[in-house]
Specification:
Length: 290
């Protein structure tokens, strides 16, 4: 009986607080419905609940600045109000025709879209994700020698001979979000619309892949050789890292063996990958007011 009375008092106090709140426009019934809806938005399959919890507990215990870091792929999309800008770093002497360039652009957009499509359910964004599509804009190509790029149109800006400390071509740092996370692109040629959030770094002879908030690096031969594949899986794996997903070199969650972020065990985004992706958003969406 005391427990029931205590619960009733707590409920009445909460309702009183709601009515007393200045500027309140939502009724208690509406607030309760909203709360119920928010709870319903996280509904992974029952068999994935435990492994998803294990993954997030591992992330929380191993990421040094999990909630303070502000340049995940999520941050980039939100800063752009629903799009992403890319630079292509062509670290190779293999010639690129206009036709090959366009095929690379098409493949990049398709593959990146596989991850953002994982955030859409029934035509709407999952768990308050505000976008049903995330357009990819390729705003620049970086190359050591301009003659390597065998096109003359001006559809994309070209950075020739602009090299990083390791001698690899890069788009202008003044235009890169990695270098200007405050969003100040005042020194970027072409202004903010020509800024790039990520780089697709294609390196001749490079084995495997690397990924982070700066973009993704894979072998030039690998990527161009996989343009017609349904899943360019090394690239997809690295995009997962851009959005904060972890590697699984030394452990696997309960009941899960084969998924894209467990390198070498899958070649496409699996159901478990999709729900890990959604879970990361669930834990950072509050920074955007969702």
């Amino acid at each position: 009986m005391r427990t029931r009375i205590a619960r009733l008092v707590a409920v009445l106090a909460a309702l009183a607080a709601l009515f007393a709140a200045p500027g309140l426009t939502t009724s208690p019934a509406q607030a309760a419905a909203t709360s119920a809806q928010a709870a319903d938005d996280w509904n992974p399959p029952a068999n994935l609940v435990q492994p998803l919890n294990e993954v997030w507990n591992h992330v929380e215990s191993t990421y040094p600045d999990l909630y303070g870091f502000r340049n995940y792929g999520w941050d980039q999309v939100m800063a752009n109000k629903g799009s992403i800008n890319y630079c292509v770093r062509w670290e190779s002497d293999a010639p690129v025709t206009a036709a090959l360039r366009d095929r690379i652009h098409t493949a990049l957009k398709k593959q990146f879209g596989k991850w953002t499509a994982a955030m859409v359910e029934g035509g709407t964004g999952h768990n308050a994700w505000p976008y049903t599509t995330v357009p990819v804009n390729i705003v620049g190509w970086a190359v050591k020698d301009r003659s390597t790029l065998q096109w003359t149109d001006n559809s994309v800006h070209i950075y020739a001979g602009n090299l990083d400390g390791g001698g690899a071509p890069q788009c202008a740092p003044d235009c890169g979000r990695f270098f200007h996370q405050d969003g100040n692109y005042s020194k970027c040629p072409g202004g903010a619309s020509r800024h790039y959030d990520q780089s697709l770094w294609l390196t001749k002879g490079f084995q495997g892949g690397a990924g982070g908030d700066w973009g993704q690096r894979v072998g030039q031969e690998y990527f161009t050789g996989a343009l017609d594949q349904e899943n360019i899986h090394i690239y997809l794996h690295e995009v997962g890292h851009t959005f904060g997903l972890d590697d699984f070199y030394d452990w696997t969650p309960t009941g899960q063996c084969c998924f894209l972020m467990n390198a070498g065990s899958a070649v496409q985004i699996t159901e478990f990958d999709k729900w890990m992706f959604r879970d990361f958003w669930r834990h950072v969406k509050s920074r955007y007011g969702f």
